[in-house]
Amino acid sequence: MAELKQRLRRLRRTEGLRRMIRETALGVDDLIQPLFVVPGSGVRQEISSLRGQFQWSVDTIVNEASATYDDGVPAVILFGIPEEKDPQGTHGWRQDGIVQRAVAAIKKSAPSLTVITDVCLCEYTDHGHCGVIDSEQGDVDNDATLPLLAREALSHVDAGADMVAPSDMMDGRVAAIRQELDKAGHTAIPIMSYAAKYHSAFYGPFRDAVGSAPQFGDRRGYQMDPANGREALREVALDVEEGADIIMIKPAQAYMDIIWRVRQQVDCPVAAYHVSGEYAQIVAAAERGWLDFDRAMMEVLVGIKRAGADLILTYYAREAARKLSAR
Ligand code: PBG
Q: In whole angstroms, what is the distance from residue 259 CA to residue 320 CA?
């Protein structure tokens, strides 16, 4: 009887063999690239805490989106930084809002690129919370937020978005958005819900990028406690029942077990968001020469895939697509 070590060695002898027996295949079609759009023109502003990622204006994001598609990435998810923020986040659903204009421009120049939009109020509210504030309670008012999110989602789809991704974690928002879209005749547009979204320190760089750090309190009331796993299954079940077409888990790296458990529970596609802080920590270590950026990123992405994610939202999408198609 041969030793296991020797048997495995035989299978690992050449790159060809290693490829043939590889259990998990990360493919370009699994990747979704987040992009940030800001007011102005000619903008290409690097985000200091998210090295290699930029804020784009509507005119420059068009080229970036097309180039991302040309590199093999099938989809982007857009985040908008509005000209003005107010308590209700009204710029979130304006027809001439920043995301709405970006969607229309991108779809015009790259019609085959799948354009997803993040639906949330935190980028648009001056207090930075994901919903409107009930002044008596001093807390986010779940139910009062729902029609605003539905309105925002509809405005994105009217502008040409292929899919909407509510990230606010209000209860009932998937149903509210579904109803609003259906009423307007957009029955064919899917919803990818951030179903299990944890209250995580790893969103730090993102909040710098969009200026959405809460001005008071935190998001513990509506985001999940990192210690809870079963609770994620309840959140996911609720969103599926409300009509979510794709379920997302966020962040990814510290929540691989959640990805795995959700994969066992649902039959719909599962997405995982490798968030800003997870990306930034690898960038930072690589800058110090402590690890190899490309290898570390590819290892994390294949790990997320192995855990059960069908789709991965990652700031590394374009780079990974280039590597994957290079062979
Ligand atoms: C909320 C939203 C956040 C992220 C995506 N959508 C921030 C938050 O909940 O504070 C974070 C993504 C990242 O960190 O990369 N609109």
A: 21
5 is known as an active-site residue: no
- Local structure of 89: helix, strand or coil: coil
Q: What is the pTM of this model?
A: 0.96
List all residues 6 or more positions away from 146 whose beta carbon is below 8 Å from its beta carbon: 170, 172, 173, 176
Question: Quick count: other Cβ atoms within 10 Å of Cβ 44?
Answer: 12
Query: What value, to the nearest 5°, has the Cα angle with vertex 128 and ends 138 and 169?
Result: 80
The active-site residue out of 5, 107, 183, 250 is 250
Identify the residue with better confidence: 219 or 300: 300
Span 107-130, pLDDT tens digits: 999 999 999 999 999 999 999 899
CATH 3.20.20.70 fits 24-325, yes or no: yes
316 lines ligand 1 (CB under 6 A): no
The candidate with the shortest Cα–Cα distance to 156, out of 180, 127, 131, 175, is 180
Can 108 be counted among the known catalytic residues? no
Q: Percent helix, strand, coil in the chain (nearest 5)?
A: 45, 20, 35
Q: What CA–CA distance (Å, rounded) separates 20 from 167?
A: 38
Question: Which ligand 1 atom sits closest to the C-alpha of 202?
Answer: 14
